[in-house]
Amino acid sequence: MAKLNRSLNTMELAAWATIFLALLLGAVLFPLITFHSRGRRAYNLPPGPKPWPIIGNLNLIGELPHRSIHELSKRYGPLMQLRLGSVPVVVGASAEMAKIFLKTKDEAFSDRPRFAISKHSAYNYSDILWSPYGPHHRQARRICAAELFSAKRLESFEHVRDEEVLVMLRHLHQASGRTVRLRDYLQTLPLGVISRVVLGRKYVVEEEGASPPAITPAEFMEVMDEVFVLLGAFNIGDFIPWLDWLDLQGYVRRMKKMSATFDSFLEHVLDVHNERRRLEGDRFVAKDMVDVLRPLADDTDLEVPLNRDSVKAITQDLIVGGTDTPANTIEWAVSELLKNPEILAKATEELNDVVGLDRLVTEGDLPRLPYLEAILKETMRVHSAVPMLAPHLSREDASVDGYEIPAGTTVFVNVWSIGRDPVLWDAPQEFMLERFLGSKVDVRGQDFELLPFGSGRRMCPGFKVALKVMARSLANLLHGFVWRLPDGVCKENGP
């Protein structure tokens, strides 16, 4: 054990020595970089904290970046300039600023920064989320709108959503009377829906009679968990590029490992689909989204040809984008209702009046459940699944609110701050769904005070699926069970 400890200490000393040498090199280079930049044009930048040499304002960013940046915005205003390492960053923290970045001047701010996660896990920026703005991105969104998320396509998969909600309810019914960890049930629901809709079969459970998958259900859940961790990781090499090779936090190593596992899985999925297409020949009918996407790789009339990696990248986006947001939102909604039993009682009363006591809630019932809709909107305001929208990048110099934003600036829209803006919301810290009863504020990207799915050219293309899964699932959870906190837990202990 002593030998092991000495070995670990030696490794730690070596790592710290490497970091020290890298910082020393930066300290030597910084004056040269500063001298070189003196001849550049001076911009009228938004207000913000003074950056330190090398690290910029990284010292002000805590474990929850959206909260740290929110506190800074309260001091410097809804349009704020930061320097994270060597990367210039602008933050929009109001509905007005969000509208400028995402609608008024959407084209100027429609690009994406090239972060490590997009390089290593998005097939070198060839997916929808991280691809640079241009012909490939526009074409991918057109494919989503016309082929993957059209009204007809969504309707054709309603039976899948029906069946997966029923599976979740049966599993919960088996646990009736016991304390349950709701997230365990919620995670498998959207993942089951999206894997059947996109891939043609469930990969979260062993399916009787199905061919053995390239990845077990447990491995599939594990890699999905890793994807969400790495998507939210604050990788230091993205902001101090000359430290990237050190991979100080180990994120790049994990990204490469996760990507290799996911790629092996997607290769298996494409091979299975290609084989079915070959065997069925002229009888082939598309049954899932991969069936729709795969032939497009052979379409010579496309503006930008799609290759196998492009198909895998878009498929991966569909899986990841359709999984985490519904589970998080439903979990937060139930948590808030348990803390507010009077709201829970009213929601149950609405469901009993509209649906009755002898059947499950269907998607046809949802338009007649305004109280349930208000619960979901208030949940997404207070607990946005993505507190800061995926970063944008300015493609050209632009003027915003009298300030200048240089080309190449990374732009964050802090949805978490907007949801707590006292100018927009009375008592913003309180869970008050009444604010949405009779309100026309929606989540479809046109009302900038509520942007759980973003807006404009970079809005989440699959938000309609997410809304259907969330509303249907929450309605049946409330309609089918009586919920209460575990013994010994009071609502003051809630989130």
UniProtKB/TrEMBL annotation:
Entry superkingdom: Eukaryota
Range of residues in the leader sequence: none
Pfam families in alphabetical order: p450
Bilayer-spanning residue ranges: 13-35
Residues annotated as binding heme: 460
InterPro entries tied to this protein: Cyt_P450 (IPR001128), Cyt_P450_CS (IPR017972), Cyt_P450_E_grp-I (IPR002401), Cyt_P450_sf (IPR036396)
Keyword line: Heme, Iron, Membrane, Metal-binding, Monooxygenase, Oxidoreductase, Transmembrane, Transmembrane helix
Cofactor section: heme
An annotated Gene Ontology molecular function: heme binding
Family, per entry: Belongs to the cytochrome P450 family.
Protein name: Flavonoid 3'-monooxygenase
Species of the source: Paspalum notatum var. saurae
